[in-house]
Design goal:
Elements lengths: L1 E7 L2 E10 L6 E4 L6 E4 L25 H14 L1 E3 L7 E3 L16 H4 L6 E5 L5 E5 L10 E4 L2 E4 L2 E3 L19 H17 L2 E7 L2 E10 L6 E4 L6 E4 L25 H14 L11
Antiparallel strand pairs: 1-2, 3-4, 5-6, 7-8, 9-10, 10-11, 12-13, 14-15
Protein name: Trimeric autotransporter adhesin YadA-like stalk domain-containing protein
Organism: Acinetobacter shaoyimingii
């Protein structure tokens, strides 16, 4: 084993910075795919002492043996990467091993049943943390849906709500109503509309105008006729109003606008009949 030499101006010059081993020159090649370097031939040096701690600057110029190289590689491989999250124990993965980043075990149809990352954001922060964020406005596409407990939102329809019956109690102002509740309220309104006494209405310029001076009862229109001989008026059909309170003293102006019942009419007629006529003369016979 000798220092390298060269001929300069007829003199042999020794290069103390290079040593040439005596075996035939080694053949070195590099794999274009793996980038691994292969060496064939050359001289093998055996019984070479360890260079020691390769991280110690005092050992920086020492030759390392295969054992030193092996240990250095193992140090890098074993150090690997440590993965942490908001919860759970930190996981150390050595180089050459695999880690799994998963959702639920059943979530396997990534291309057909996921948004393929459309609503997920990632950001590398200054401390190296990779932050994962969810979009403020989720876009699940035409076939997407949201399921919260038993409540789902699909194509603009919310189903699975528990408040399906309208009770009128325990009302919460900011809670959504269901179609079942609206149907109950609508049916109640229809029933009220069918049984309520209404003011007269008319159509004017496409608008419904309420006439608060007239009430139209809902029964078929009454047929009214007047006898030409007796002048009595007959009414057939129409609506009968029952349980109407007495208007009171019909001669009292305060009662003038009150509806009268048949009893009031009877009493008024009797008042007229009973009053009758009183006849007087200049004298009378006992």
């Amino acid at each position: 084993m000798k220092y390298a030499t060269s001929e300069q101006n007829g003199n042999t010059v020794v290069d103390y910075q290079n040593i040439v081993l005596a075996a035939p020159e080694a053949i070195v090649s590099k794999d274009a795919t793996t980038n691994k370097i292969s060496t064939t031939g050359g001289t093998t040096i055996s019984n070479l002492a360890s260079a020691g701690d390769y991280t110690n600057v005092d050992n920086a110029t020492k030759v390392v043996n295969a054992g030193d190289l092996n240990n250095a590689v193992l140090d890098v491989v074993d150090k690997g990467l440590t993965f942490t999250a908001n919860s759970g124990t930190a996981h150390k993965a050595t180089l050459g091993t695999s880690i799994s980043i998963k959702g639920a075990e059943d979530n396997s149809a990534f291309s057909t049943e996921s948004d393929q990352g459309k609503n997920i954001y990632t950001q590398v922060e200054t401390d190296g943390t990779i932050r994962i964020g969810l979009a403020n406005n989720l876009d699940l596409g035409a076939q997407g849906s949201i399921l919260v407990g038993s409540t789902s939102i699909v194509n603009g329809a919310v189903t699975g709500l528990s408040n399906t019956t309208w009770t009128g109690t325990n009302v919460q102002a900011d809670r959504a109503a269901t179609e079942g509740q609206l149907q109950q309220v609508s049916q109640a309104q229809i029933e009220t509309n069918n049984t309520a006494v209404k003011y007269a209405t008319s159509e004017q310029n496409g608008n419904t105008v309420v006439d608060y001076q007239n009430i139209v009862l809902a029964a078929p229109e009454a047929i009214v006729s007047k006898d030409a001989t007796t002048n009595k008026i007959s009414t057939t059909g129409g609506t009968t109003i029952s349980n109407l309170a007495s208007a009171g003293d019909y001669t009292n102006v305060d009662n003038a606008t009150k509806a009268v019942n048949a009893g009031d009419l009877n009493n008024a007629v009797l008042d007229v009949v009973d009053k009758g006529l009183t006849f007087t003369a200049n004298s009378y016979c006992a």
